[in-house]
Structures are given as structure tokens and as C-alpha cells.
């Protein structure tokens, strides 16, 4: 069913070409909700008026598509500068970029996200698998369809929360609000739109995949950090606490004294490399999350 302001939304979408997909989703959702609500209220007050005549005044108050798009692009620029993505003052050599990772907040944020991903992945996976299983089992009953609809709506809410987490921790711009659902479609039309929207199923896919990714992220970061710190403090463990490097078959093995500087240097290099790897994974995961959780046009 075509609405009077669909042309406005099309013009707004064209005016937003080149903007971040998350910004486009927010702008279109805000415009659709505002125009829908304002049009319904205006038609209630002015009985007999045509939607086209009422819409003209609403659009004038809301702003032309080009003006709205310019405002959202300006807001996007301000938001991007506020995210944890500081711009480099100038070109840096590969060596400076490698060892300067400890001064980059993105690296610490990525390490934090990789540690949290095991918890969030477990929650997401459990919710998705349980919801799909119960929906499949209850679909033959009267409560089956309402339960499935509620489950699908919950996954979209979880996707929005995960998007906010990704933006806050990884610095990747994500939607600030959910996609607006058309009220003119009715109950059954809204249910069909929910099923047809690919972002619903992509959100479920993201939730399922987050558990194996969380296991990999958590295992990788904990193992690398633990090994790095163990190598760095090896001289203290050996000469202060008299702990061996490793034990096997009742025999203690100690590293020779001349190797200790190389062990410490190796631990520092491994720790620096770990933070660089974490920063790269954080950047890649942010793009991956945007590909699955942001509505494509």
C-alpha cells in the first residue's frame, strides 16, 4: 500500500547517498515515524481533508528532504568525531604504529569486547536457539504464532542493544533507534513484514554466530595475554620465587640466565602484537556487525 509521503522518503534516501548506513537508517526511521504520526493526527482534526493537502504543511514544518539529509550528515560528522577513533596527527611509520598501540584506546576497548564476547555470545546463542526451538514446537498450537512473533521482535531489540555496545566499545557507528514498523499494514500485514524483513533473520544469524566467535575471541586474547605476561615476569618467577619454567616427570627445568633478557623482550613483543591483533579484530568485528545488524537499502 502506497502512502502519501513515500515520495518524500525516496527523496530523503537519495539525498542521504554517501552517508553512513546507520545514519541513513536512523534518518529514514525518524522521518517515517514523524510523518506517520503527524499525518494521522492532522486527519483526525481535519475531517474530510485529503492526505496530500495535509501532508504539505507537515513537510514544511519537518523540512525538505535535502535539509533533513544535510542535518543528519552534519550530526553524523559530529558523532564520528566523538567515537573512540582519534585521527592521527600525521603519517606514522609502521614501527611507531606497532609500538604505539598502548596509546590507542581502541586497542584496550577491543580487548574488553573480546573478553565480554564470551558472555554476550552465550546469552545470544541461548536465546536464539531456545526461541527457535520453542517456536518450531509450538507453531501447531494457538500460541505458536504469537510466541514466534514476540521472539522475532525480541531479536530485533537485542540487535539494537548489541549495536549500541559495538558503537560504545568498538567505535563503529551503529543505529540509535529501531526500524519503524508501518502501522497502516494492520496486524497481519505487520507480521508478514516482520517475516519478510531480512534484518530480522540476519539478527538471529548474528546471535547464533556470536557464541563461536566469542569462544575464539576470549580464548585468543586470554591465552596471548597470559603467555606474554608470563614471559615478562619469568626472571622474577625464577630468581625470586624459584619457580621452574616447566615441570615434567618430576624434573624441574630452568632457563639459563643469559636467555632471560631475550625472554622478557619476547614477552613484550608478544604483548604488543596481541594488542595490535585485538585492535584489528575489533575493527573487523565492527564492520561485520554493521553488515548484519544495519538495515540495507
Structural account:
By secondary structure, this protein is an all-alpha fold. It has two domains: about 1-80, no CATH class; about 85-295, no CATH class. About 75% of the residues lie in helices and about 0% in strands. The protein contains eleven helices and two strands, in the order ααααααααααββα. The protein has helices at about 5-15, 20-45, 50-60, 65-80, 95-100, 105-140, 145-170, 185-195, 200-230, 235-240, 260-295, and strands at about 245-250, 250-255. A two-stranded antiparallel ribbon has the order 1-2. α1 (about 5-15) packs across α4 (about 65-80) and α7 packs across α11 (about 260-295). The mean pLDDT is about 85.
Question: How does the SSE layout of this entry go?
Answer:
Layout: H1 6-15, H2 21-45, H3 51-62, H4 65-82, H5 94-99, H6 105-138, H7 144-170, H8 186-196, H9 198-232, H10 234-239, E1 246-248, E2 251-253, H11 260-293
Antiparallel strand pairs: 1-2
Helix pairs in contact: 1-4, 2-3, 6-7, 6-9, 6-11, 7-9, 7-11, 9-11
Sum up the structure in keywords.
297 residues; mainly alpha; 2 domains; two-stranded antiparallel ribbon; 11 helices; 2 strands; 73% helix; 2% strand; elongated
Summarize the structure.
With 297 residues, this protein is mainly alpha-helical. It is built from 11 helices and 2 strands; from the N terminus they run ααααααααααββα.
Amino acid at each position: 500500500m502506497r502512502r502519501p509521503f513515500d515520495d518524500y522518503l525516496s527523496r530523503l534516501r537519495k539525498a542521504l547517498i554517501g552517508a553512513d548506513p546507520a545514519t541513513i537508517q536512523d534518518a529514514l526511521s525518524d522521518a517515517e515515524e514523524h510523518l506517520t504520526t503527524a499525518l494521522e493526527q492532522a486527519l483526525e482534526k481535519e475531517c474530510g481533508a485529503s492526505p496530500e493537502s495535509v501532508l504539505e504543511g507537515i513537510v514544511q514544518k519537518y523540512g525538505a528532504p535535502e535539509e533533513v539529509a544535510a542535518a543528519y550528515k552534519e550530526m553524523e560528522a559530529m558523532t564520528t568525531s566523538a567515537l573512540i577513533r582519534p585521527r592521527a596527527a600525521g603519517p606514522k611509520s609502521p614501527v611507531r604504529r606497532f609500538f604505539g598501540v598502548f596509546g590507542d584506546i581502541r586497542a584496550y576497548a577491543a580487548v574488553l569486547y573480546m573478553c565480554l564476547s564470551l558472555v554476550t555470545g552465550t546469552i545470544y546463542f541461548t536465546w536464539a536457539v531456545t526461541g527457535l526451538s520453542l517456536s518450531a514446537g509450538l507453531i501447531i498450537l494457538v500460541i505458536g504464532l504469537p510466541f514466534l512473533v514476540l521472539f522475532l521482535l525480541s531479536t530485533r531489540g537485542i540487535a539494537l542493544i548489541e549495536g549500541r555496545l559495538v558503537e560504545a566499545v568498538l567505535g563503529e557507528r551503529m543505529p540509535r533507534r529501531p526500524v519503524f514498523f508501518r502501522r497502516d499494514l494492520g496486524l497481519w500485514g505487520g507480521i508478514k513484514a516482520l517475516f519478510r524483513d531480512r534484518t530480522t533473520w540476519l539478527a538471529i544469524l548474528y546471535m547464533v554466530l556470536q557464541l563461536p566467535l566469542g569462544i575464539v575471541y576470549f580464548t585468543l586474547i586470554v591465552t596471548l595475554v597470559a603467555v606474554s605476561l608470563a614471559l615478562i615476569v619469568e626472571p622474577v618467577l625464577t630468581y625470586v620465587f624459584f619457580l621452574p619454567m616447566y615441570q615434567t616427570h618430576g624434573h624441574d627445568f630452568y632457563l639459563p640466565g643469559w636467555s632471560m633478557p631475550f625472554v622478557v623482550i619476547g614477552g613484550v613483543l608478544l604483548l604488543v602484537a596481541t594488542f595490535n591483533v585485538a585492535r584489528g579484530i575489533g575493527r573487523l568485528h565492527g564492520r561485520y556487525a554493521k553488515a548484519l545488524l544495519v538495515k540495507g537499502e
